[in-house]
Design goal:
- This protein has about 110 residues and is of the alpha+beta class.
- It has a single domain, classed as Orthogonal Bundle (Arc Repressor Mutant, subunit A), CATH 1.10.10.
- It has 4 helices and 3 strands; from the N terminus they run H-E-H-H-E-E-H.
- A 3-stranded antiparallel sheet has the order 1-3-2.
- Strand 2 and strand 3 form a beta hairpin.
- Helix 2 crosses helix 3.
- The longest helix is centred in the C-terminal third of the chain and has 29 residues.
- The protein starts with a helix and ends with a helix.
């Protein structure tokens, strides 16, 4: 039997990259701000240790850019911004996510009637 926490972990792992890209659509953000915002959403809690490798991969893949900026509250912060390639990847994910979500909901509805 699969534990609910395991299911949620798998779902989060598959969607986290695109949730982060969506968070960058309207504004640049630094990593801890992203972690804090994710923690505010039920089911999306993630640790900095998970996020930093993801942001590094997104940067390497050309989906985000980075820029160091001075901070009033301590050392400089690395800000992340979505690139056109990141926007394209997000748009493609949204299309596929909606199709997948609708298919799952349809199948689940048939199983409960």
């Amino acid at each position: 039997m699969v534990a609910t926490a395991d299911v949620l972990s798998q779902l989060r792992r598959g969607a986290l990259e695109f949730c982060v890209l969506a968070m960058l659509v309207h504004e640049e953000r630094y990593a801890f701000d992203i972690v804090r915002s994710l923690s505010d959403v039920d089911g999306m809690v993630t640790a900095e240790g998970t996020l930093y490798p993801l942001l590094s991969r997104l940067s390497k893949d050309g989906r985000v850019t980075t820029q160091w900026r001075d901070s009033d509250a301590g050392p400089p912060r690395k800000y992340y911004a979505i690139t056109p390639a990141g926007r394209q990847a997000l748009a493609e994910f949204i299309t596929e996510w909606r199709r997948f979500r609708d298919a799952v909901e349809s199948l689940l509805a048939k199983g409960t009637t």
